[in-house]
Every structure is written in C-alpha cells, then in structure tokens.
Amino acid sequence: MRGSRIAWVVAGVIACVAVVVAFDLTILGDGPNLETAPQAVAPALELGSPSARPARLSVTIAVPTRRVVRAAPFRRRRFPEVPDLKAAELYLEQRGGVSAFAVIDNRGALHSWHGDEQFVSASVVKAMLLVAYLRHHGMPSSDMSNVLYAMIHYSDNDAANTTYYAVGDAQLMEVARLAGMEHFSVSGYWSGAQITAIDQARFFLAMDKLLPEKTRAYAADLFSGIADYESWGIPKVARPQGWEVWFKGGWRGTDRGQLVHQVARLRKGDSTFSLAVLTDGGPSMAYGIDTIEGVTKRILGD
Predict the structure, then answer these.
(1) N or C: which end of the chain has fewer CB within 10 A?
(2) In terms of Cα–Cα distance, which of 274, 280, 281 is closest to 296?
(3) What is the pTM for the complete model shown?
C-alpha cells in the first residue's frame, strides 16, 4: 500500500513538472514566428495491486514547433514612376515637330513613346565613337586624349572626324550590337548615323559594361564634365535635384527644321536609369531644348 502511494506522489510531481516545462517552452518561443500545437500533458500510469512495485510512468511533453518565415524579396521603388512617364507623353503630344523618348528605369523596365522611330544622330553618336575607340585602343595617348576631350567636352566635329577614321563603321556597328541596339545604322560618315530613342537608352545604360574596366573612369569624367554652355536639357533639370548625370547632346538643321537630341544616364543613391529624348522639325534650337527640359521635369516628378 505504501509503495502505491509513493507511485501516485511521484506521478503527480512529474505531471506538474511536465506542465511547467511545456508552459516555459511556449512563452520562450519566437512570438509571431512560432506555432505551438496544443497537446494534452497527461501522465499515463500503470498501477498494480497494493503490493505491486511503483508503476512505470510515460510522460508526453508538448514541444513548440518553429515555423520558417521567408522574407519577401526586396523590391526598390520604381523610378521613374508610371504617372510621370505618362505626363511626359502627354507633354510631347502637345509639342511641335517630331519627337520621341525612351526610359529604362531603375528596375530595368523599358518605357517609350515613339521609341523605335529613327532620327539622324548628329553629335549624339560621338558617345559611341568614344566607346568604340576605347574598346579597341585602350587608354589614349596624350595627343589622342586631347582629341577625345574636344569631341566630348565641347562636341568638336574635327575631333569626331579623327576618331571616326580610327574606328570606322565596323567598330560602331560592333558597339551597337553589343549594346542590344536594333535599329542603328551608319554608312560613310558619323553624323548621318540613324538612331532611335530606345537604342540610345540601352547604349547609355550598358556603357560601363562595354568599356574596358581601366577606361571607365576616364569615360565617366568626360561625360560628366561637358562644357557648361552645352549642359542644358537633362543635366540642367536633374543636377539641382541631386542626380549625377552622364550625357551627350546633338543638334543640327535638317529638312524638317531644327534637330535637338540628348541622351543620359542618371544616378542618385541606389537608383540608376537612362533617358533619351530625340526631337526634329522644331522652329529653333531653343524650342528643342525647352522640349527636352519639359520631358525631363515631368519624368523626375518636378
């Protein structure tokens, strides 16, 4: 009889301990990341006759189970935003002449308005001349550095001629192919090359990958240091808002009227995107510049 009472006392003590353990394990879990399946905590006792030995005890303890919570993949805010791109389209619809723009946003998505329409390149193609030269010749000599500086910094045509004779149509076409351009063409002279807004947006965004690594800083200095009197349009609007801008513009008369283009890569913080605005048939260069600045203001949400 005494042995039976001892067995009951021991069983009761173990049951209490089991409940406390289960309770502690539950409250020490990971809050919302923890799922605990409720289980009864009950000792199973096997008792013999009054003269039997103490019973064997079987105790089940509720152990909390951990739920694995996978974090959602990080998605940076899209920039430029779609409403601002639509505002740029509506603006261009009201402008005179022929125009197009293309944006590759900070997530790599393409947005365009008449983005596949071809335009005469004018001096915009000088950016491709620089990349083609650096790809095949590496860092320039002192004399050639002066030529490339003149071609980009103040858009000198004689310097562009010298560079074009060093690379030719074949190397320009190679750059176009590597950049994923689909409608670029050139035959016989650089300023008559045919470009589209989409192709130029692709090229400016891919430029670093097209350049030999040791020439990238050199090219970036040229495209970010263009003469102030040619830094209208995209850089004029974007730089006061804190954007770094690497760009090239082009302008000339055509049988439509005045052509004015500008293409750029912009970066602020962890957002980088490219923008190409092409215009032709305007009444003046000032009108084309106003069009490019109007598009840029809307795309930047200004």
Answers:
(1) N
(2) 274
(3) 0.76
Pairing, β 98-104 against β 271-282: antiparallel
Domains and CATH numbers, the chain: 2-66 (no CATH), 82-299 (3.40.710.10)
Q: Are 238 and 245 in contact (CB under 8 A)?
A: yes
Pairwise CA distance, residues 22 & 34, whole Å: 14
Q: Is 120 helix (H, G, I), strand (E, B) or coil?
A: strand
- Does residue 127 contact residue 204 with C-beta atoms inside 8 Å? yes
Q: 173: which residues sit within 8 A by CB, 6+ positions away?
A: 184, 186
Q: Are the C-beta atoms of residues 175 and 209 closer than 8 Å to each other?
A: no
Q: What percent of the chain has pLDDT over 70?
A: 75
Backbone angles phi, psi at 238, to 5 degrees: -80, -40
**CA 90 – CA 2 distance, rounded (Å):** 96
Q: Which of 295, 230, 292 is nearest to 260 (CA)?
A: 292
> Which residue in 171, 128, 127, 163 sits closest to 147, CA to CA?
163
pLDDT 10s digits, 152-161: 999 999 999 9
Question: Between β-strands 119-120 and 194-195, what pairing exists: parallel, antiparallel or unpaired?
Answer: antiparallel
Q: How far apart are CA 264 and CA 247, in angstroms?
A: 4
**DSSP symbol at 256:** S
Q: Which of 60, 79, 99 is nearest to 274 (CA)?
A: 79
Alpha-carbon distance of 96 to 7, in angstroms, equals 100
Asked if the bond preceding 73 is cis, omega within 30° of 0, the reply is no
pLDDT tens for each residue of 229-271: 999 999 999 999 999 999 999 999 999 999 999 999 999 999 9
Q: How far is CA 289 from the centre of its chain?
A: 27
Query: Where does residue 31 rank: exposed (0-12), middle (13-18), buried (19+ CB within 10 A)?
Result: exposed
Average pLDDT taken over every residue of the chain: 85
